[in-house]
Every structure is written in structure tokens, then in C-alpha cells.
Design brief:
7% strand, 9 helices, disordered C terminus, mainly alpha
Length: 217
């Protein structure tokens, strides 16, 4: 009997709900939320102070709160798609609570690395990309030869289940991240955070020596 990926589903619902709330704010209050709950490198490292009336939580706490915010619909959808692909097999391998730990710690470390790399910046860093990179790192470490089954539309309004190899998808993702780090020129994408999150996820997941198999939600 297949186990329901409770943590993956819960994380997806939480991220979607927070984005729906954020999208319902006007521009002023949305900016207030981003400044209050996003990671601002100079504030996190004690190089500057928050504006009066902005600081809602201590700077260290924003390493958690920033994971729940997104910069737009495309940002959210990209993260949810990656979570839907990597989350169920990672959760099947590591367990629900360990996956949650991977998600949170990968996010914390990834955001910290990105903040240190831009220590004097006052531009907020938000998003769960580093967290989900940790989930990708976990499944890449625990089941690099596995497959994930996904449903795709077929003829007659039917769904066809395809087995997608984990390793090639992760390899393409890694190349994209390395290319982003190499060619990053002030772009608002925290590639260093993604890379750091991936490494944390791989380390926390631990090795798995079992043979190739198909994992499905």
C-alpha cells in the first residue's frame, strides 16, 4: 500500500495558501510583508537596522518566514512543480518528519549562504527554492537510479502514467544552477541558495544502497 506523502502535500498547501494571502494584499502591504518577513542580508548580519514599524520578527527568524513568501505566480508554480516531482519519492525514502527537517534546514542554510554572499545588500531574499532544492538533493542521494510516476493527459480524457527517471532530471537542474551561478549578473535568482540547499538535503538524507525501483505518491 502506497503511503500518502503527507509532508509534501502539507508544504504545497501552506505555500499556496500563503501566496494567495500575499497576492490579495495591495502593493504597499505586500512590500511591508516582504521587508518584514524576507531575509535582508545587511540586517541579518547586523550591518543595518530595519526601518521603524517594519521589523515584525527578529532578523534570524526571517530565515524561516522568508521560505513561505514568493515573488510572483511563476516563482510559486516553479517551486510547486519541483516539490511535486521530488517530494513524494524523497518522503518515501526519508519519512515525513525527516523530509520536513530537510526542507526547513536546507532553506535556512541556503538563505544564509545567499545573505553572506551579498552581505551589504538591503534587497529582501524570499522563496522556498533553497528548501525545495534540499528535497531534490535528498531524493538524488537516496534514490539516484529511481523513477517517479506522473500522470499525463492521453486520448479520450484518460490519464497515462509515465515513469520519469530521477537522475537525468536532477542532472539538468544541477547544470542550470551551476550555469546560473557562473553567469549571475545581479539577477533576482538566488542560485547560491539553491546550490547550498541541495547540498544540505543530500547530506541530511544519507545514502541508500538499495537497487533501482519506481517510487510513486
Amino acid at each position: 500500500m502506497r503511503r500518502v506523502p503527507i509532508t509534501t502535500i502539507a508544504l504545497g498547501l501552506i505555500l499556496s495558501t500563503l501566496f494567495a494571502w500575499q497576492a490579495g494584499l495591495d502593493a504597499y502591504h505586500d512590500m511591508h510583508v516582504v521587508l518584514a518577513y524576507g531575509v535582508i542580508p545587511s540586517q541579518l548580519l547586523g550591518l543595518s537596522m530595519a526601518l521603524p514599524g517594519i521589523a515584525e520578527v527578529p532578523p534570524i527568524a526571517t530565515l524561516i518566514t522568508a521560505q513561505g513568501l514568493h515573488g510572483g505566480f511563476g516563482h510559486l508554480i516553479g517551486n510547486l512543480a519541483a516539490l511535486a516531482f521530488a517530494g513524494p519519492p524523497a518522503e518515501a525514502q526519508t519519512g515525513a518528519w525527516r523530509l520536513l527537517l530537510v526542507f526547513l534546514l536546507a532553506g535556512v542554510v541556503g538563505l544564509t549562504v545567499e545573505a553572506v554572499a551579498s552581505a551589504t545588500s538591503s534587497i529582501p531574499i524570499i522563496g522556498a527554492s533553497a528548501s525545495i532544492a534540499g528535497v531534490i538533493g535528498a531524493v538524488a542521494r537516496r534514490d539516484p537510479h529511481g523513477h517517479v510516476r506522473i500522470a499525463v493527459p492521453a486520448r479520450g480524457f484518460r490519464l497515462r502514467r509515465l515513469a520519469i527517471p530521477v537522475l537525468p532530471v536532477v542532472a539538468v537542474w544541477l547544470v542550470a544552477q551551476l550555469a546560473g551561478i557562473a553567469f549571475e549578473q545581479g539577477e533576482p535568482v538566488a542560485f547560491l541558495a539553491h546550490a547550498a540547499g541541495f547540498i544540505v538535503g543530500a547530506l541530511l538524507a544519507g545514502p541508500d544502497n538499495r537497487g533501482p525501483r519506481i517510487l510513486a505518491p
